[in-house]
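Table S2 (continued). Query chain:
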Amino acid sequence: QADLVESGGGLVQAGGALRLSCAASGGTLSSYVMAWFRQAPGKEREFVADITRSGGISSYRDSAKGRFTISRDNAENTVYLQMNSLKPEDTAVYYCAGGLTYGRYAYWGQGTQVTVSS
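Corresponding output:
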């Protein structure tokens, strides 16, 4: 069982940057594949990025490649999403998720709002 808590969201102008954090408690983060998802108003939740247990391999949705970086610090039980060159279309609630296998995430945070103004 892992409790996930996101932080770091906020309001930023287009072209700006934010760093989201996802802190885990009640479990060992290194046991889980971790991912970030987002959901914009009126849209379905979508995958943003994921990362292996060791942090050695990550993958991204096409629109995030070259702008977002997912990383993790297992000693600190925290996963990060560095978001640069933000665009208004990045506006969404961002969720971190963890699970034993890719695509099957049993643990979810409550979300953090990211708003990018034009």
